[in-house]
Every structure is written in C-alpha cells, then in structure tokens.
Fold:
Amino acid sequence: MNIDDIKTIAVIGAGDMGHGIAEVALITGYRVYLRDINQQFVNKGTERIFASLEKLVTKNKVSEDQFKTIKHDLLVPCTDLEEAVLEADLVIEAIPEIMDLKKETFQIMDNAAPPHTIFASNTSTMKISEIASVTSRPEKVLGLHYFNPAILMRLVEVIRADKTSDETLQIGYDFVIKNNKIPVRVKKDLPGFIVNRVQAPSSVLLNCILDEKIADPEAVDAVMRKIGMPMGPYEIIDFTGIDISYHGSTYYAQSIHPDFAMGKTLTAKYKANELGKKTGKGLFDWSQGRPKIDLSRATDKFDPMDLVAVNANEATKIVAQGVCSFEDVDTAIINATGNPMGLIALIKGINPADLSERLEKLAAKFNKEIFKPTQMIKDGAYR
Structure:
C-alpha cells in the first residue's frame, strides 16, 4: 500500500478532536465516515464541521462547490462502529483517554474492517503499542496525534509503535502532508510522545504554584500574556478541560514517575466537576465567555523561565532515548503551540551551570525529582 490507496477515512469520535480531524480530511477530498456512540453526538460534530466550513467559505479558503460536495457526498455520519470502518482504508480513533475503552473499540474495529485497513489513534498520552496489542494487525497500527483545534494547528505527531511497519509509518507521514499539515516522526512509543511529554513538567510546576499559593492563576497568566502568549497556562488548562489534565497526569504518574500526579487544587476541581470552559467554571469563570485577564495583576513571584527550564530538561530525556532530535522538539513545539520559538532555541544561550542550578533549586523547593537536571543539561548538549 501507499498513500494513493487511501480513499476512505473513518473518524471514531465526533467530539472536539474528532470533528476537527474529520473536517481536515474532508477539505482534502477524502470520503469520511464520522462515528460516535449516539445520534446526538454525531449531529453535534456534523454541525460543528458545517459551521466551521461556512466560515472558511466566507474567507475564500473553501469554495461553495467544495462545501456542497462535502455536505452531500463526502461526509457520512453514523453511530454504528462496524459500519464506520467497513469500507475504511484508514481509521483515526479520537475517543476519550481511557485505555480499556480504546482497547475494546480497536478489537471491534479489527474484526469489522478489511485486512488492508490501517488503524491510527489520536491519543495524546497513551502508548500506541498497548492499544495495538489487542488487534490482529499491530504492524498496521500507528499514532496520528493532532492538536486542538485540528483545523488550525499544523503539527501532527506520527508515532511508531513497537510493531508498526515502515510502510504503515510512511503512509501515515504522507497522509499528514497531503492534509497540508506538518508531520514529525516519533521514533519510539513513549507516553506523551514529544509535545505533551516535554510540556508535562510545566504542568507539575503549575500545580505546585497553585497548591502552595505562590500566585493565583490570573496573576501567572497575566505574566505570560504580557510577554506575548495568546493564552496563559491556567486558561489553557481550563480551555482544554481539567478532566483532560487529570487523566493525563494520572497516566503519567503511573507510567513515567509519581511526580506527575495532579496537584490537590486541580484534583478538587476535577472531583467537583468544575472542569473549565466545558462546565462554565474551573480555575476561571467561563459563564460569560472567555475570562478577561487583568494584565496589571502580573506577579513577580513567578518566572516564566522556570517553565522553559523544566520542559527543556524533559526534552533532553526523550532525545537521549532516541525518540526524536532536538530539531524535532522545536519543530513540534512551534507548530503545536504557535510559539515563535522552540524550547531548545530558548535555552541555547543559557550557561549549562546556570540552567542546572535553576533546575536543582526547583527540585529542592518543590521536592520533585523530575526537575533535577539531566546529564545532557549539565554537559550543555543542547547548545
């Protein structure tokens, strides 16, 4: 098989990620089956695709004829999982981050899909190899990790699981390019892959700041907004969902290191179902729309370089394991977050001794082993 053999796509899950992934493929010209567990979810996903396409038509990024073709010919909404994959050449799973649910779904798809069908997971944290293990075709399973919103964010991580074939990986890579996205190969199947893995320590640090009441969310976000970030880190947590952060942190704590466990403040929010934008309340009040951040509240108790340091430290860990190169880290970060510079570019000018000292202080202050500088940091291998 090669990329030209991919004609029909099935996207499993019509939520935030699923409907966006489906829209990207539809714009490219693929026939797409969009499946979710009930008609209400399917309808909502379909409506969101059409609303987005209407905006793109007004901006002359999609033609009227193209929109009509998508609406009447290319998009096939459905609730039956077996029906969704029956004609699929490529299936992209975008369901909740619950491993047992993913395994159950992949088993059903494996039994229903044609032998040539390639399966991809859009999981942001979980090992593709474990998901693939329940199928009879692990060589045809890979990760295609899009970023939210999929229609806008350019990066897609193309992840090789333990048994993914070269052919499958190349088709996934070519599919991303054909969809006008930027692929980055993830050569080893580690939890969190590149972007979410290297950004995970900053989430730990943000939890520490909350739990120890060093600064409140608005004060920290004001700092980040003043240096040019379109959205502060705590607003991002609310925007994507505290439940998403909770599940990711729990998985990292189990699979990488206990230090990654969610902090007390956000755990309490999760248990109270105050999940951010989706529930109207989280760290901020979303009942009247996006929260307004008072930039005058920027605090001097928080240094943005601490976030950069702990994330760059984590980046050296995955580079040392052969997951990717330093260049891949920066390409991924820039295209997944919209940041003008990558992590490694940000630390290139910092003396290794100074960076190591900063990390040692953070590790001691918050009692977090994961903040301790790696040998690559100490040696200045990033320079």
Notes: The mean pLDDT is 96. DSSP finds 17 helices and eight strands in the chain. The first strand starts at residue 8 and ends at 12. Residues 140 and 363 are 41 Å apart (CA to CA).
